[in-house]
Model the fold of this input.
Amino acid sequence: MPNSTPEPTKPNDVSLPIAAVDASTERAVEQSIYQQLGAEKFWDIARAFYGRVDKHERMRPIFPADLQEPIRNQAEFLIQYFGGPQTYSDRKGHPRLRMRHAPFPIDVTMRNDWVDCMRGALVDAEISEFIAAPMMAYFERTATFMMNRP
Ligand code: HEM
Done:
């Protein structure tokens, strides 16, 4: 049959997500987010995130009593990761996230709790779905990488 769509040569071909982009495109999208949101929105996200942590039965106990420093850490880190100034690393050095999370017991339940708090924080901070989607993709995969318990 001329001009027909060729059959996939491997079974895997059909399971590729339609919207898949390569890693460098994904990183470029991430790094454009600071320019779109501006610094204050990242502070809104960090405050909203820790507002949710503060009320969370499982999450609350692993964070310090005073959440001002965690809010600052999170806001500055996110600003840096999503393409803004490197204030976080100027103050604290390389993020080394997995190492910095080693003291905290992070199993799949904690991982999911964290992701839920962040998903809620993006809603609280009124981040559009168009920007929230690539941010959540980053959070989902990084939170998995942070797991250090079965
Ligand atoms: C996308 C995933 C995550 C990111 C980007 C992230 C980011 C960060 C950052 C930047 C810090 C500050 C580290 C420092 O400068 O000392 C931090 C601290 C912390 N994270 Fe995470 N984290 C993630 C996942 C998790 C998960 C799954 C948990 C467990 C529920 C967790 C619990 C903590 C705790 C208890 C702290 C200490 C608070 C502080 O000193 O700032 N994190 N995280």
Q: What stands out?
A: The two ends are 52 Å apart (CA to CA).
